[in-house]
Amino acid sequence: MAKTFYEFMLKYKDKDTPRGDLIEDMMHELRIHPEEEVDKIDSEEMFMHYLRNHYACRECIATAQRCWQSYRKYLEKAA
Fold this sequence. Notes:
By secondary structure, the protein is mainly alpha-helical. It is 65% helix and 0% strand. It has 4 helices and no strands. Helix 3 (44-53) runs antiparallel to helix 4 (58-78). It is globular, with a radius of gyration of 12 Å.
């Protein structure tokens, strides 16, 4: 079974990279705002909407877009 985007991103946890920063932010949001269910976001459009609603910077949005590209490739291989 394929991983969710959140599960996919966990491989970047504790990495000193933009992707590592993104998953750390996602984990932080999940801890303080579990009702927003950032771990259940299942589309790039929903995630971009989430980031924009949380006033994410351009660099964060660009990183998230690159992560979704990687995630799509992962899903293609997992199919």
